[in-house]
Specification:
six-stranded antiparallel β-sheet
Amino acid sequence: MARIYPFRALRYNLARVNMEDVVTQPYDKISPAMQDRYYETSPYNLVRVILGKHLPDDNDQQNVYTRAADTLRTWRKEGILEEEGEPALYGYSQTYTVPHTNEVRERRGFIALGHLYDYADKVVYRHEQTFPKHKSDRMSLFKATRAYCEQIYMLYSDPAFTAEKLIFGVKGPEGQDSNPADLAITDEYGVVHRVWKLTDPNLINLLVTAMADKKLIIADGHHRYETSVAYAKERSAQLKLPLNQPRDEEEKLSSGHLPVPPFPEAAMMMTFVNMDAPGITILPTHRVVHGIQGFSSPDFITRASAYFDIKELASHDVSILAQIDRTAFIAVTVDGSYLLTAKPEAIEPLLQDLPARQRQLDVVQLHRIVLDKLLGLDQETITRLGSVNYLREADEAAAMVTEGDANIAFLIKPITLEQLKEVSLAGDVMPQKSTDFYPKLLSGLAIYALD
C-alpha cells in the first residue's frame, strides 16, 4: 500500500532569483556543456548541488559532495532557499510538444513525499536495471547534503482520475484552468512547467487516502530510488526505528491530522503521474557501441543475417520502424544503414529462458541477440567497460559512427506504456535505459530537506 506525505519544502525565493535561471534537467541528463551553461547562468543554479564540478585537488575533506552541502547551507542562511510555512503537496503539469512532431500534450501529476519500500514489499516496482557506479555517487551526495533536490517520477493507475479532479478541477470555457498556477516557467526545451501549492488539510488527506491502495512503477529515477532505500534502511538500523511500521493513518486522517514519515529518511520526494491519464510520452533510447577492436561492418552484417532479414537503406530514417509489426531496428555503420527484421524461428531458441512478455521486446532482443551473442557484450561487460552510449536523438547516434567515434549504432522503437506496465508488475526488469520518458521533471521546483 503506497503511503504519501505532505512536506514543508525548501523553495527558491522568487524575490532573489529568476526561476528559469536556477532550475535544471535531472542530473543524469546534464551533459558537460549543459553543466557549464548552468554554472554560467546563475550563481544559485541547482547544478552546483546535484552535479557539481570535480576539482583537481579534491580530497576526503573537500570535494564535490562537501561543496554541495556547503552550498545548500549558505543558500538557506542567505534566504536564497526558504522553507515553506506549512506542509503542502504540489500539483505539477508539463505542457510540451512531442519531439519531431507538432503534437502538443500536457502531463499532469503532483509532488509529494513517497514512502520508501523494498521491491520485495510489492508496492514499488522497477522496470530496468541500474548501474552500481551511479548509486554510489548519489549515496555520497545524499549523505553530505541531507536533502533530496530531485524527484522520482512514479506511475500509478487510477481510471477514475481522482487526483486530477481534486487538484486541477475542471477547465474553463476557454480551456484555461479554474485555479491558476502559483508558478509557471519554460525550460530550455520549450516545456512549460506549472506548479500549484496545495495546503488544504482536507484535500491533502483525500489524496493520501486515494493513493493508499496504489501500486507504483518507477518511470525515471531508479538509481536515486534504490540509493534512497539503502539510506533509509541504514538510518532505520541506526535510529532503531522500523522503516515499515504498521499503518495507523486512517484514524489520524479521520481526525484531521496530516501523516508524517516515521523518520525523515523513510521517504523521498516523488512526482506521481496517473498512467490512465493522457500526456505520457515514451521516446526510444538508441544504442551506440564503441571500443570493439577489429570491428568489421561487412562481417557483422553477414553474421547478423542468420537471425535477421537485412535490407540496406538509403538513410537511417527511423520512421520506417513504425511500419513493422515485429522486432526491427536500424544498424548504422560506416558502410551504410541496414534494416534488421527478426527471423522468429532463428531467435526464439535464444530467448527461451526469458518470460514470454519480454521475448517480443525490441530492446531485449537487441541486447540478447545482437549485443551479447554477435558482439560479445553481455550485461556485465557493458557495465564494466562502458562500451555502450545511450542517446535520444537518432541523428546524434548515427553521427558518432559516421564521424569515427563509434563502431556501430542501433536505432530502435520505443517501449509502449502497456509493455512497461506488464513487465514491471510481473517483477521483471528490462535492460538499462530501456525507456526515455519525455519531458523530464525539472529539478529545483521543490527540495525535501531532512534536517
